[in-house]
Design a protein that fits this description.
The chain is 12% helix and 41% strand. It has helices at residues 9-21, 25-30, 41-57, and strands at residues 59-60, 65-66, 72-75, 80-86, 96-100, 109-112, 115-116, 129-131, 140-145, 154-162, 165-176, 183-188, 194-203, 208-213, 218-219, 222-227, 234-242, 249-256, 261-268, 280-281, 283-289. This is Ig-like domain-containing protein.
Length: 290
């Protein structure tokens, strides 16, 4: 801490006299009209403020990074582009650009000193990412991820870094999978009932299953969902028991809540006077946008 005290008039005169007495006549002539006192408290205070500002600003970038204002949607097996950009219209060609998930290292993709750094990349993304280098001159960072999987679902971070500091933005990737066309198998059950089973696979996120009769009435059913450990996709097995064969047709629809789309299949049930049967495969599968 620096302490400053203003000198009284008597102290100032005494200091001046003492200073002049210690100088030679030639030095006295050179000091005419010049202040021989140390800097005032205000100057010292200003210097300290500038130093404090310099230290506090260290590591902070003079730019910001932003991404899209809403989640990016991608389909399983397709490619997706993730994009973020600088707030200032400046070139980012000399900056380090890092795309990462939970931890900065290893990265989803890293561009440093004008080249890609595959040796610092997560193994899950090796051979799957491409960085659009032309975008750096336009203050943009565009990353393409190929062959999107369920495990890409979630947050991504885009970080720009230069010598004076860094800034980053967070993006949300939502992955969706539209499964296979449902198939209905119909079997004669016990006690004259009819058992129908609807199967499909390749869904993400968790799908919704619904059975209806020919009148459009919803039928109670039992549905089991399993997740593949290798793909993360859902498989569906749904069962319904019909006691009245006169219901005519059955429909099984499976919908993706993220895509607002559903796959539907209809199957015809034999009536009371029909011959005995063992198995009937569904007819007329179709995709319906809700």
């Amino acid at each position: 801490m620096v302490f400053c005290r203003h000198m009284t008039t008597r102290e100032r005169s005494s200091t001046m006299s003492g200073a002049q007495a210690s100088l030679s006549p030639a030095a006295m002539a050179n000091t005419q009209g010049r202040d021989i006192f140390p800097p005032s408290c205000s100057i010292i205070f200003l210097l300290l403020k500038l130093l404090s500002y310099s230290l506090s600003a260290k590591g902070k970038a003079d730019f910001s990074v932003s991404g899209p204002g809403q989640p990016v949607l991608a389909m399983v097996g397709e490619s997706v582009k993730l994009q973020c950009h600088l707030s200032l219209n400046i070139s980012a060609e000399d900056m380090e650009v890092r795309w990462y998930r939970k931890e900065p290292s290893p990265a989803v993709h890293l561009r440093k000193k004008g080249r890609d750094m595959p040796e610092e990349q997560m193994w899950q993304y090796k051979g799957r990412t491409t960085f659009w280098t032309a975008g750096l001159a336009q203050d943009q960072a565009v990353l393409t991820i190929r062959n999107v999987t369920v495990f890409d679902n979630g947050t991504f971070h885009c970080k720009f870094k230069e010598s004076t500091g860094s800034a980053e933005a967070t993006l949300w990737l939502r992955v969706a999978g539209l499964g296979s066309e449902p198939r209905i198998q119909v079997r004669a059950g016990q006690d004259e009932g009819i058992r129908a089973e609807c199967t499909s696979e390749g869904w993400y996120p968790e799908p919704q299953v619904e059975w209806r009769d020919f009148r459009g009435q919803t039928l109670p059913s039992t549905t089991n969902l399993t997740v593949s450990p290798t793909t993360g996709l859902f498989a569906v097995v749904s069962n319904v028991i019909v006691w009245d064969r006169d219901v005519g047709n059955l429909s099984c629809s499976i919908s993706n809540p993220l895509l607002q789309k559903r796959m539907e299949t209809k199957s015809h049930l034999p009536g009371e006077c029909s011959a005995p049967f063992d198995l009937k495969i569904s007819e007329h599968p179709q995709t319906v946008s809700s």
